[in-house]
């Protein structure tokens, strides 16, 4: 465990492994900007994922495909600037690691050097083996991501549950074992049957973090805007909303508009 200049003990990949060993669940949320990262890091989250879901949540794109490496570095830098404790993992975006292992390494190095992130995440198994190996060989921690991998949405065709059939489930197990053997420090499993996710978590020694993968894994991740109720339309079965911040914001903005129109804001104390 390393100690930040603030005196706060920072979460490391080794600490996550120790959490799995002692059966302590790992909490992970996304963040894409300084203010949100400051709040969730201060609340004690273990891992912050600068997810390429920024493409949907921050930019309003339908998929994660359009976001670029430069965009991801911008978001990751803003998050790193806010964080004292959490481990910051940054998604390598679509098109920045699948082409060749050289390109993968170059992208991962840019993320680590320019944003100060602590680790990278990539989607896929066997098909990106060389890229994963090359990034790891440079001493960069890698988190894997299997199951529903949104960067492959046009191959899947839908966002429904993955690996329900035997062949796909077996490939997922093989890929998970491969990623562990290569040296990944953790694995995200997205939207797969809970029994399969639990089996993978039991068979692997590295932490397995689930999203829509049930409670038998080593930790959970959600998109922060979804769990806070800032995004309102996205309502998958696995999502628990912990607040209605979107509703609160709408009310606050309506209140402000009323006050401005009624010349109630600013009042005498709110001016010079
Ligand atoms: O980009 C993202 O937010 C993710 C999580 C859903 C795991 O990859």
From TrEMBL:
Pfam family of the protein (one): Pantoate_transf
Enzyme class: transferase
Residues at which Mg(2+) binds: 52, 91, 123
Entry's family note: Belongs to the PanB family.
PANTHER family for this protein: 3-METHYL-2-OXOBUTANOATE HYDROXYMETHYLTRANSFERASE
Quaternary context: Homodecamer; pentamer of dimers.
Protein name: 3-methyl-2-oxobutanoate hydroxymethyltransferase
Originating organism: Flammeovirga aprica JL-4
Gene behind the chain: panB
């Amino acid at each position: 465990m390393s100690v930040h200049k603030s005196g706060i003990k920072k979460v490391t990949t080794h600490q996550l492994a120790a959490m799995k060993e002692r059966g302590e669940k790992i909490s992970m949320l996304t963040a894409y900007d300084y203010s949100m990262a400051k709040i969730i890091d201060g609340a004690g989250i273990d891992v912050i994922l600068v997810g390429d879901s920024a493409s949907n949540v921050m930019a309003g794109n339908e998929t994660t495909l359009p976001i670029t490496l430069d965009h991801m570095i911008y978001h990751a830098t803003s998050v790193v600037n806010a964080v004292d404790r959490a481990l910051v993992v940054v998604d390598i975006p679509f098109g920045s690691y699948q082409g060749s292992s050289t390109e993968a390494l170059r992208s991962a190095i840019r993320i680590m050097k320019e944003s100060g992130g602590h680790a990278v995440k990539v989607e896929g198994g066997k098909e990106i083996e060389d890229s994963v190996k090359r990034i790891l060989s440079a001493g960069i921690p890698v988190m894997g991501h299997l199951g529903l991998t949104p960067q492959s949405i046009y191959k899947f065709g839908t966002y429904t549950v993955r690996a329900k059939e035997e062949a796909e489930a077996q490939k997922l197990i093989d890929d998970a074992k491969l990623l562990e053997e290569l040296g990944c420090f953790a694995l995200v499993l997205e939207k797969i049957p809970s029994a399969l996710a639990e089996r993978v978590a039991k068979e692997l020694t590295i932490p397995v973090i689930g999203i829509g993968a049930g409670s038998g894994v080593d930790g959970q991740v959600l998109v922060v805007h979804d769990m806070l109720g800032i995004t309102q339309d996205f309502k998958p079965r696995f999502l628990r909303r912990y607040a209605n911040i979107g509703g609160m914001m709408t009310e606050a903005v309506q209140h402000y508009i009323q006050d401005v129109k009624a010349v109630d804001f600013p009042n005498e104390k709110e001016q010079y």
